[in-house]
Design a protein that fits this description.
The strands form three sheets. Strands 1, 2, 3, 4, 5 and 6 form a six-stranded antiparallel β-sheet that branches. The chain is an alpha+beta fold and 372 residues long. Helix 9 runs parallel beside helix 13. It binds 2-acetamido-2-deoxy-1-O-phosphono-alpha-D-glucopyranose (GN1) and magnesium ion.
């Protein structure tokens, strides 16, 4: 069924006036649908959830409803003392009362309210922007910190457990497709070596969890800079979007993911790998914003693993892109066959830069955590 026909299934007043692909997601297909009545207009975000990635898309909707109900209530209760109007999208139901619509080909469609008069950016615009991104993630973690982590289902088992990606990578390495790529390319062999040198390190957060130093909480799962909405008028962060990966996990993966996406000024798809580096000024601004909201729930053990989380998630994302390249691009959407290899090289370069700047990053973290 055409996306235009699907838009009409959602319970929105007026007639569909236009529908355009939007966003830069690597997994789902996203459209902006505009509906008009004779006196107003409503815009919604419509998405086809990738059924290869999310085996149980109904669970995403269940999670979304629980999560947004909790956060909207809390935002409402705190609105008198907040310095801005915090927002979070909510589900737009179908005309038949369901939260989603399945088309005749089995496609899973759902719609969400649009966070309007706000924009998201692929890369950091300024230190102020970085600080706002930190505040939005801190506010999100603070709000969900009072929820039972088991109140949400695990929609993507293994998502952000680095050792599990390593195990999958090892499986893929054995396949003929991967072996061929390794034999024919020095570049691929260099990346294999890069992974080998960090094999032990890949377990650091899961070991800390097993040792009881870290605990499972609710996480966003994908808080990259482009998922943070900034008010067009005030420049303040207002919302975090793309809530499909919210689930129980370690908030460290979120903290690291926001920083690895924000502090690489060149962005995830740059052609100029030589320029990729981890920016300390942006890091400092983000961490200060984050801590303002997170100081109430971060433990001493949490603080101990913040540096490692930045290094680890960058390594993990590089590993995921690299593995997908070796597997023949079965997970992340690509426009050309080498794109996942290129994405992996960017993340590994960033990971090296994080390793080189370890001392400075730790200093920034310590000062922000100690309120200096
Ligand atoms: C994917 O589809 P998108 O762009 O929201 C991925 C994230 C990665 C991100 C990298 C479910 O997110 O884990 O960090 O690409 N999401 C999933 O850009 O795998
Ligand atoms: Mg996402």
């Amino acid at each position: 069924m055409k996306p235009v026909k699907i838009a009409e299934q959602f319970d929105v007043a007026g007639q569909l006036a236009s529908m355009q692909p939007t966003g830069s997601g690597n997994v789902n297909d996203t459209y902006l649908a505009v509906f008009r009545t004779h006196f107003s207009e409503e815009r919604i975000i419509m998405q086809r959830v990738n059924g290869h990635v999310f085996a149980q898309p109904e669970w995403i909707m269940e999670n979304l409803s629980i999560l947004t109900n909790h956060c909207h209530k809390q935002m409402q209760a705190e609105s008198g003392s907040a310095d801005r109007i915090w927002q979070l999208p909510r589900i737009v139901p179908c005309r038949n009362g369901q939260d989603y619509f399945r088309d005749e080909d089995g496609g899973f469609w759902r719609a969400l309210t649009l966070i309007a008069s706000a924009s998201s950016y692929e890369t950091a615009q300024s230190a102020e922007h970085a600080r706002e991104v930190g505040m939005v993630l801190g506010q999100f973690h603070r709000m969900v910190s009072t929820m039972n982590p088991l109140s949400l289902r695990d929609t993507l088992p293994g998502f952000h457990e680095t050792p599990k990606y390593l195990a999958k990578y090892d499986e893929v390495l054995k396949t003929p497709t991967a072996q061929e790529l390794i034999e024919s390319s020095l570049e691929v062999r260099t990346l294999v070596k890069f992974v080998e040198e960090r094999r032990e390190f890949a377990h650091i957060l899961e070991n800390a969890l097993a040792a009881g130093e870290l605990k499972t909480r609710l996480i966003h799962g994908d808080p990259k800079v482009s998922n943070i909405m900034i008010d067009d008028d005030t420049g303040k962060g207002t919302a975090i979007i793309d809530l499909d990966t919210a689930k129980p996990g370690l908030i460290h993966y979120d903290f690291g993911d926001a920083l690895r996406s924000l502090c690489n000024r060149e962005g995830e798809e740059t052609k100029d790998i030589g320029k990729v580096a981890f920016d300390l000024d942006l890091c400092e601004a983000f961490v200060r914003g984050y801590i303002e909201f997170a100081k109430g729930f971060l433990t001493e053990n949490d603080k101990k693993y913040l540096y490692d989380s930045i290094r680890l998630i960058t390594f993990e994302l590089g590993l995921r892109f690299f593995q997908d390249h070796l597997a023949g691009n079965v997970y992340f959407k690509v426009k050309q066959p080498e794109q996942n290899l290129h994405r992996a090289k960017i993340q590994f370069k960033l990971c090296e830069s994080i390793e080189t700047r370890k001392r400075q990053i730790k200093e920034v973290l310590a000062q922000a955590c100690n309120g200096q």
